[in-house]
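Entry type: protein chain
Record version: 2
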Amino acid sequence: MWIHEVAPERLAELFHHYQQALAPEVSGKGSENGAGWREVPQQERSRLVAAARLALLELEAMTSERAKVRQYFAQPGEAEWGC
């Protein structure tokens, strides 16, 4: 499953990057002047990584539930018809 191929640390870093890019300007500074990932305090980074890990677990649960529902239906052309 693709979810296992995504590192929570990388996902948290991407979220931080896009949060900085999309943040409104504060006191005349552009959002590009926001703190980079390496400047984020370790405690905040750990919190972001934990949130990313939980998001990945939730996505995995959602996809596995969909797979369970679909397993009871035949693929197109495989259904047996008749009595």
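Comment: The chain has two helices and no strands.
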